[in-house]
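The following block was generated as part of the benchmark described in Methods. Ligand: iron/sulfur cluster.
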Amino acid sequence: MNLFLAQSELKDLYEKVAGGARLDEAEALRLFESKDLNALGAIASLVSARKNGRRASYILNRYINYSNYCILSCQFCAFARKKRDADGMQLTVEEIAAKAREALAAGVTELHIVGGLHPSLPFSYYTDMLRALKAVDGRLQLKCFTAIEILHLAWLARKPARDTLLALREAGLDSLTGGGAEIFRKEIRSQIARGKESAEEYLDVHRLWHQLGGRSTCTMLYGHVESLADRVDHLRQLRALQDETRGFTGFVPLPYQPDNNDIPVKVAPTGFDSLRTIAVSRIYLDNFDHITAYWVGLGLKLAQVALSYGADDLHGTILEEHIFHMAGAPTPQSQSEAEMIKAIREAGRIPVQRDTFYQPVKVWSEETPLAAENAGASEILERNLASA
Ligand code: SF4
């Protein structure tokens, strides 16, 4: 054991985790409350190395928001618009397919598609969209819709959520997104996302999807009005569902962005807070294979540092992000594959291009040159999809 760990207030928890034991909620709260970030990083890195060795992943993906019209008004949301708003938008299925063709030309393997709860689009719009995207290229992986969107679509389709998920899967849905979890505790949820689905409903949609053989990610929006105990409660519920279904592929902690919304918090989470949240997530969520450092909210520099605090994934190239940027995120709209590989290599890790299900598409050895920087679009596409 390192000297600093031997002297740390977290020494007993390091030993417990090193021995393979699971931490309880009180111990997770102790981790959150500790100021010993180096010890947290050491414990989280121990778990991360056990799960993924030196590998750290990224994905070539593109975000598409089909519409920002929403019948709800979550207090933290800077994205949603009403029909009366001049900057509301919605895309036709053909416009979405055109974005997919552009993405394919850039070597993308995943489309990540979410929108607001649109007041009038019919259920057929969503199934037509999925079919049109699979028609662009059947190998494109479609990661679409949050749990609240699924409940909205079920209401539109006049079907139970299970039948709605089956209909969407039949149309081409590959994976659910993890958005909309926010913070599960009811008292906090009503302060930041009044009217949204309950924690139970969020977890039920993911449970149903997992029971149907599907996979999804999950999230936590942190750094607003919640307490550290609320974060532990949130992680506890995710870990319990993962024990039950094993259907979550990864966990994505999302740092709150403070601009253009109705929550009286004016400062985004600090670097310290983000690193400890990623580290505690890695340690406590012992049944999750992957923890993502979401560069859109953290910035690529802090996301890179998070690779030493339990994260093993940097998310994706994204190409066109709106939800965090409308809430004030100062990060760029996209990252190149070369930037992500460089960030991972500098952190002493082996870059792995992954697919939606965190399966490796390409492992970059120490020597592999960044040929993709110079490759033509068809070459990149062939490489990515042939090996996906
Ligand atoms: S967070 Fe989602 S459900 Fe809530 S207002 Fe924004 S778009 Fe609508």
